[in-house]
Structures are given as structure tokens and as C-alpha cells.
Write a structure and sequence with these properties.
The protein is of the alpha/beta class. The chain is built from 13 helices and 13 strands.
Length: 382
Amino acid sequence: MNRAATSVRPAKREYRILSNYWSDTLESDTVNRPHPSSLHMSVKGKPTSFDIAYMAGVSQPTVSRALRGSPLVNEETRNRILDIAKKLNYKVDKNASSLRSQQSGTIALLLFEDPTPDDSHINPFFLSMLGSITRACARRGFDLLVSFQQLSNDWHRDYEDSNKADGLILLGYGDYLAYREKLEKLLAQGTHFVRWGAVLDDQPGISIGCDNRQGGRDCTAHLIAQGKKHIAFLGDASNSAPELYDRYHGYTDALQKAKISGDPALQVNAITTESSGYQAALELLARGAKFDAIFAASDLIAIGAMRALSDKGLRVPQDVAVAGFDDIPVASFVNPPLTTVLQDTSKAGELLVENLVHLINNEPVEATKIPAQLIVRKSCGA
């Protein structure tokens, strides 16, 4: 597919972020550039990777690996190479490098649209990850192509095959069972990709994700420690949403450890939107089952549930304690501020890019779970 054809498709929006605008590793402002004479020897003409190799006392391939962030170069050697490159104002010739390696020097971030009350169609959790992904790409000399996708499109057929990108980072997926088929096709066609999501034993490809079960367990245990014995769970508890399902399993783990019997009437399905959380809380109230706390599978669900409780005359946390998951920016600003589970988006972005670069370089990678962290605020009554 050519760029002209891509630009007129309404279902997809693309934005390219050039790494040389963001890089804090290899380039510096003209005014502050140290003169090459500050090194042990000067370089006549445009510096090359061979000049850097000579000054660093390493081979030219080692310089190339260090400049693209390969883990095969130890940190001390990489820092020495980067320091020399910076002092020489060395810039990677991406066109020449691409011709030699048959690579584009670009990573594509495919961001799948979610239902939202505004026109963004972006889960706010992913917005916080975008900055760390951009910075991680820049440090490794890659441009970032951000593309907004609809899950119904044949997005798996594009990008790497057309040499538009060397690999894909996937954020968001909707129904995992339908999404999985496209992941399997990516794997079959040899596409380099990593995704943010649940880390599953039989998953296609490599995933980086939060330890959702641990996060759900810690949050529910905290509610129990506040004296809550009838805790509802709002969120999809099925294989279609494995991240939310893991949080549900963490919830049931904590109940079992506290010897609290689970009540099926206290689980209501909800997708990650405020309106879904609002409707789920209304359904929970309509069922008539006794509850004194809500653990929502996402902050958006929790915020919607808090509004529904308020509309029905119930106070948070005096009548019902509420906790969420994600720690999106608005979580600390709702009234009362929301107890939630933090997913480390900075580390997530770094690991997504690092592992994708390893795949591009045919280096070993493995799925990774990032520990979750409980953030206690007033909505749980603590």
C-alpha cells in the first residue's frame, strides 16, 4: 500500500515523530556543541563510525551496535561510544544505514480505537505510555510512526511488508479472541511485533504487561483490610478481555484467602468506559445484593460507578468504598480521589521498544510482567 492510498483512508490516521527532534542521546544544540579538539585527537571532515571506533578502542561493528542500542554492548562501552559520538556531533546516516540493512529506521505504533465520550477514541491510559515510547525510540535512533487503527481493518497486512516500518508496537485490542487471529497472521508472515497486554502462556508473539492478577489481589485485600466483606467486581470476567479477567482472578484470590464467599450477583460485566461503569453500577444496585465496596477493573469503570452511586444518593466512601485500576491522570482529581492500581507506563514504554529492537536485530526476547503498585486515596475510606 502506498502513502497516497493510506492518507485518504478515514479509518486510519498516521503521525510520524522524527527521532532527531526528540533525541537526548546523540545530538545537541549547535550553540553548545563541544569542539572535536576536546577529544584526544581531532577529525578532519565529517566524522564516521570508524573514527568513533578508533577513539573508543573498539571495532566499527561494536560502534554500530552501540548506536542502535544493542544489548550485546556493555553499558560502560556504550556510554563511552555515545559520549564520543556526541562530542564529534556524529549523526547516523539513516539513508545509508537503511540501504545496507534493508530497514526503514522506523517503528510503527498501532493504537486501536476505543469507545470514548469524546472524539479521541483513545483510552487515556495509553496516552501516558506514548511519551515513554517516543523517548525510547529516539534513544535508539528510530523514528516513530503513530497510526490510529480500527480493529475491523486489515492492519496486519500493512507496514513491515511495505517497508514502512521495521516492526510494530500494538496498544489496545478490543475483543481478544478476534484480535488473536490477526496476531497469529502477523507471526506466520514473520512480522516483528510486540504488544501491551496480558502475558499468556499460549499467546502469539511477545507481550509486555502488568501483573494484573497481583494488582487485583492487592487492591481487594486492601478493601478487606478496611473491613469490607461484600465487595463487588465491575468488569469483563471472560477470555475476551484477559487483562480484566486476570484482575478478576486476583479479586477472587483475595476473597478466598480472607475466607469470604464470593457472590455471583456481585460481578457485573463492563468494558473500559465511564458510561459502561455507570450502567454496571446501576445494574448492581438493581440486583438488590448487599455490597459495601466496588473493585472496578479500570479507573474509567470506577469513575462511572461513582457517578451512578452519587445519582442514587449513596456516598463514597461512607456508604460504598470504590477502587479502580490503571491510575490514569484524572484518578487523583475526581471527588473523592480514587484508590487505584498503578501500571508503570514509563517502564512499559521502554520495555516495548527495547524488546522490539531486539526482535528487529534477531536477538532473543521474552514476555515480561511488570509489578503493579497499589495507590491508596480517599475513595476506599482509608
